[in-house]
User: Fold this.
Amino acid sequence: MSHRIYLLPVWLRLWHWTNAVLMIVLAITGASLHFAGSGPLLVPFSLAARIHDIAGVALVATYGFFVVANILSGNWWQYVPKPPGVLGRCWRQAVYYGWGIFKGDPHPYPPTVEANFNALQAIVYWLIMYAVVPVVVVTGLVFLYPQFAPAKMFGVDGLLPVAFLHYIAGSVVILFMLAHIYLGTTGVRVTSLFKMMITGWHEE
Ligand code: HEM
Assistant:
């Protein structure tokens, strides 16, 4: 008989899917701005710029909501990998993803109410949500209000390093999203984790 636990409150699920839609819109319009004029799949420049600005401002709001709601609900604690043995648990998890999963081994650290994430997941989610996304948000805001950018940085126009950081951090989020969607298929069934992110219930 399958066992179910309720893991994800409704605010977290609403944030997650709003954030996912915004990130996809930002990725498509961001690529259209970056590779402007070279490809039939790209959104026309001025339309892409408008949509990117609007979705970016919405992302600032949803990111602010994420941080505040995580603090108030205590969910931020899930993102902190708990010693001892963090590296050892990360290694065991990586070996599972790279090898054990293909032999049908059981998940080494199935989610519980106390520890929703395995150690590897906690570290990656923490880095993305509290290091990389803030860089995307802050550099995006500087782009929106370029009067706040320094006139010169490292001997070049102050907006150039901002553009570089925005591009690199945005690309990291896109790479994360691709790996994240693949790992989303590694529940008991291919669809289980996606269903969990909709209903809040984890199936074992
Ligand atoms: C179409 C795009 C996406 C899909 C299909 C997707 C799918 C999922 C799934 C299945 C889970 C549950 C598995 C787990 O707990 O690890 C999850 C959780 C999560 N996702 Fe995504 N995701 C998407 C985009 C994103 C993006 C763009 C971000 C951040 C930049 C993100 C951040 C997270 C975080 C932080 C969690 C854990 C939430 C928590 O329990 O506190 N996801 N996602």
About this structure: The mean pLDDT is 95.
